[in-house]
Structures are given as structure tokens and as C-alpha cells.
């Protein structure tokens, strides 16, 4: 296949280098298309972004802590070349308050209360999770028990002091036994799925770039597909079709599946856990 583009930037961050499981698999597939790929840090001032035909966000995982700089870079880069996913899509997906929009559209989501700076917080009964509206890799997210409201409130106060809207969610019991399911879409079409277990700290914070995960291949069920498809339908109607997307699901206590997150910025696509053809499909999308 002859690519329609000549040079592609695979965008990462210095801290993320060597940690992206997708990278080797995807770069091999891209090389087979004949496109020239360069792995570059998003904040490298020496890079001539206009020299690339397409700039693909893949592992700029430090962006939540540097959001102002990252968004300025995103806009400046999009002014001189094509950025994937599109900046409007990236901006929508960065802030998890999109969950309220999905719920209004009839998509089942994990029960979520949004607490803005200056608002008081009320925690649900039982175990619960506190996380920032803008975050990646479970950074600044933690779980708490009913006896830990004081330390959880300190967590909320820290996030509010940083200007963050806070998400408070009941801890879904099935996460401990089943984990989460990630359904990957390429060019708006379902590609493959994986299961993942995230080591979310109890009344503590993730110190590394992202929380440790245990991942495995997964065959998505019809119900999982239906819920994830509904989320993707909303994304397409709202933003257009993204080059890549990942819909994370959990099984609610009522037995049904619900959307935990819609990852459109820099999602891990779990390529090592998919059929090898998934990497070729990604390469086709990125070079089309």
C-alpha cells in the first residue's frame, strides 16, 4: 500500500519513552506502509512541526500537569499541519465532564458527581473514588473507604486548590474481580478489546507517570459492544469520526455495563493484546 502522506510524527513525552506498549507494534506496521515516522516529544522546541504531513498524539502522558502549555502547543501545531485526533476532539475528551453529556444523551455512565472549586463535597456510602476531571493514567486518583472521609476531603481540597473540578464516584464492586474492559475503535469502527486491571491506590496517590496495569486480550460481549457503540455514536455526532478511540467500561452493581471513560486524546490501544491485523488497521487509518 502506498501511503497518501510522506512524514508522520508519533508524539510522545520524555517521561513516556520506553513505556508505550503500542509503540513498537504500531511503528512496525507504519514502516510496512512506506511512510517515514519520527518519534518526537511534544515539547521539543527544536521540532519543525510544519515538516510533517500528520502529527499523531500517542503518548504525551505528562499533559495534565502542563495543560496550558500543552493546549498552546496543540493549537500552534494544528495551525501548520494536521493533528490527529483533531484539537476540538482532544479538548472535549480532556475534561471528563463529558460524562454528563453522555448521560444526557442516554449513554449509561458510571454514577458520577462533579464538584467544582468552591462547592462542598458529599461522599457516597461505602467505598468511593476521587479523581480530577482532567487527568491521565490514574494520576491524582484514589479510592477511599467510609472511614476515610477526612483524608478524602483533603484530596478534594488539593485538587480544588489546583483549579480542578473533582469527580466522585462510588467504587464499583466488580472492578476488584473483573477489572475494566477497553473497547478500541479505529476510524469509528470497532477493532478489538482488552481487559485491564488498574492498581488504584487506597487513600494515596500514583507517584509514577501512570498507575500499574495488568492487561489481557478480551472478546467483547454483545452488551459491551452496544454500550460502547452508543458512546461512539454520540462522539461521531458531536465531533466527527476520530481516527482512534477507546471506550472504557465497567460492570455496574446492577449487572449492566457502563462507560467509565472515553479516551480520545492519547489512549493506549492495547495492540499487543489484539490480532496483528489491528496494528495494520491503525497504520491504514493514520496514513490515509
State the helical fraction: 25-40%
**Largest sheet data:** 5 strands, antiparallel
Regions with little confidence, pLDDT below 50 for 5+ residues: none
Distance between the termini: 10 Å
Global mean pLDDT: 93
H/E element string? Answer: EHEEHEHHEEEHEHEEEHEEH
Using the alpha-carbon principal axes, give the shape: globular
Secondary-structure-derived class: alpha+beta
Order of adjacent strands in the largest pleated sheet: 11-10-9-12-13
> What is the tally of beta strands?
13
Structural key phrases:
single chain; about 290 residues; alpha+beta; four-stranded parallel sheet; 8 helices; 13 strands
Structure description:
The chain has eight helices and 13 strands. By secondary structure, the chain is of the alpha+beta class. The model has no long low-confidence stretch (mean pLDDT 93).
Amino acid at each position: 500500500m502506498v501511503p497518501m502522506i510522506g512524514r508522520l510524527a508519533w508524539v510522545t513525552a520524555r517521561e513516556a519513552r520506553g513505556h508505550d506498549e503500542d509503540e513498537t507494534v504500531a511503528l512496525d506496521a507504519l514502516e510496512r506502509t512506506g511512510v517515514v515516522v519520527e518519534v518526537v516529544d511534544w515539547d521539543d522546541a527544536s521540532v519543525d512541526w510544519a515538516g510533517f504531513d500528520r502529527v499523531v498524539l500517542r503518548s504525551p502522558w505528562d499533559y495534565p500537569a502542563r495543560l496550558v502549555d500543552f493546549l498552546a502547543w496543540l493549537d500552534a501545531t494544528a495551525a501548520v499541519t494536521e493533528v490527529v485526533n483533531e484539537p476540538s476532539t482532544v479538548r472535549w475528551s480532556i475534561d471528563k465532564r463529558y460524562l454528563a453529556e453522555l448521560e444526557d444523551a442516554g449513554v449509561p455512565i458510571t454514577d458520577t458527581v462533579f464538584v467544582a472549586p468552591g462547592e462542598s463535597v458529599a461522599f457516597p456510602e461505602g467505598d468511593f473514588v476521587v479523581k480530577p476531571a482532567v487527568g491521565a493514567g490514574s494520576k491524582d486518583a484514589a479510592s477511599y473507604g467510609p472511614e476515610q472521609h477526612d483524608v478524602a476531603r483533603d484530596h478534594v481540597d488539593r485538587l480544588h486548590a489546583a483549579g480542578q473540578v473533582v469527580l466522585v464516584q462510588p467504587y464499583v464492586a466488580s472492578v476488584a474481580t473483573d477489572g475494566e474492559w477497553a473497547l478500541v475503535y479505529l476510524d469509528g469502527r470497532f477493532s478489538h478489546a482488552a481487559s485491564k486491571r488498574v492498581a488504584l491506590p487506597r487513600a494515596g496517590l500514583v507517584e509514577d507517570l501512570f498507575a500499574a496495569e495488568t492487561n489481557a486480550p478480551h472478546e467483547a460481549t454483545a452488551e459491551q459492544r452496544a454500550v460502547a457503540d452508543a458512546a461512539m455514536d454520540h462522539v461521531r455526532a458531536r465531533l466527527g469520526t476520530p481516527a482512534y478511540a477507546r471506550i472504557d467500561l465497567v460492570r455496574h452493581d446492577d449487572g449492566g455495563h457502563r462507560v467509565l471513560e472515553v479516551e480520545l486524546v492519547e489512549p493506549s490501544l492495547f495492540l499487543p493484546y489484539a490480532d496483528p491485523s489491528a496494528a495494520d488497521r491503525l497504520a491504514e487509518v493514520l496514513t490515509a
